[in-house]
Write a structure and sequence with these properties.
The chain contains eight helices and five strands. The chain is α/β, with parallel strands linked by helices. The chain has a single domain, classed as 5'-nuclease (Rossmann fold, 3-Layer(aba) Sandwich). It has a five-stranded parallel sheet, sandwiched between helices. Helix 7 (125-134) links the parallel strand 4 (110-112) and strand 5 (141-143). Helix 5 crosses helix 6. The longest helix is centred in the first third of the chain and has 12 residues, at 22-33. The protein starts with a strand and ends in an 8-residue tail after the last helix.
Length: 156
């Protein structure tokens, strides 16, 4: 089995500077560099990163050459609209729906985020997956970085 293809949203890069999320965020990026994951991101993340503090922008710029950049296209916009119409998230959270749409249309194995309100949430995940199924796309795993990184076994 090849490397897992992961869409990373803005929160993963910001998480590298948050006490609660730093270890898992940095480990995800480290494991990607080591070849465990293939990372994809998007023009949406590029726009959101422009509003982030300089250290987050610098970290993102450092990793950008190693990531595939997904462009927003008609198919991803239609899927975003399907999520919004289905009420997965409100129109105020349209960018969050677009992240999931881009990851789904971009054939990522999963989307990784620290956004527990609009993306990685127990009642949102099955709704995103149902909309994908209705639109002929595979279900996408929606996880936090701590759920995908590989941990060393203690005492081994």
């Amino acid at each position: 089995m090849g490397a897992l293809t992961i869409y990373v949203d803005t929160s993963v890069f910001g998480g590298c500077f948050d006490v609660q999320f730093e270890v898992a965020s940095r480990e995800l990026l480290s494991q990607a560099i080591a070849g465990r994951f293939l990372l994809k991101t998007s023009a949406v993340v590029l726009r959101e990163i422009d509003l982030a503090p300089p250290r987050v922008r610098d970290l993102f710029a450092e990793h950008l050459p190693d990531m595939e950049l997904l462009e927003t296209d008609t198919k991803s916009l239609k899927l975003q609209e399907a999520y919004l119409t289905a009420g997965v998230v409100s129109r105020r959270s349209a960018n969050d729906a677009l992240h999931v749409a881009l990851a789904s249309v971009g054939r990522c194995d999963c989307i990784v985020s620290w956004n527990f309100r609009h993306i990685v949430h127990y009642d949102k995940v099955p709704l995103y997956q149902a909309v994908n199924t209705l639109n002929g796309l595979p279900k996408i795993l929606i996880l936090s970085p701590s759920e995908v990184i590989e941990y060393e076994e203690e005492g081994v």
